[in-house]
Design a protein that fits this description.
The chain has 227 residues and is α/β, with parallel strands linked by helices. It has seven helices and eight strands.
Length: 227
Amino acid sequence: MANYVLVHGAWGGGLTYGEVPERLRAAGHQVYVCALRGLGYRQSELHPGITLTDHIDDVYEQICEAGFDRFILAGHSYGGMVISGLATRLGARIDAICYLDAFLPGDDKSLWDITGGSEHAWYIDSQRHTPGFVAPIGSVDFAPVADQVGYHPLLTLLEAIPFTGEEAKIPRHAYVFANAWEPTPFRTFAEQVRADPAWEYHEVPTDHFVMQGAPEQVTDILLGLAR
């Protein structure tokens, strides 16, 4: 039996994981779907001072609450930043880390550093009437989870993650790329790891919400990390 810790992306909440948590539980594993402050069902906690460190702290506290000593860690989209930050703290306790069509930062990089001009324009233009809050980018793509979508705190996109060496202790790394969604900011990361023997690379023919578009395939990939 393995322990899974699942981290959602920006603007949405844990419901973005769709059937995947229950599929993992049905296979006999323990699953904790984390909730980040100010997002999803925690929207009432939203304020412009929330940082990336706050979201990393949220996941750390929920792992402690779950009582997981060792676990498999997965993050979707912006969740890639959060799990990267957690890896710098708890790498020795992580059996595998999986990026689900997610941002993959290098040492001392922020999400701002690894995105381009179109994303930057959206982040800044969003400040005109809601300072400190970024509106959903490409709102049509969020239709499946519209009931859990809200603003996202800007500071989480600007804070960098300095590596500590702890992240290098994770033995297995996987990347899942959604190849049916354009324009995508994630192709850069997919190309970065595709030929790297240290990474397990997968492609799924879905839009950005790979967990909803290909729940069986994503579940199989995550189960494979427990074997």
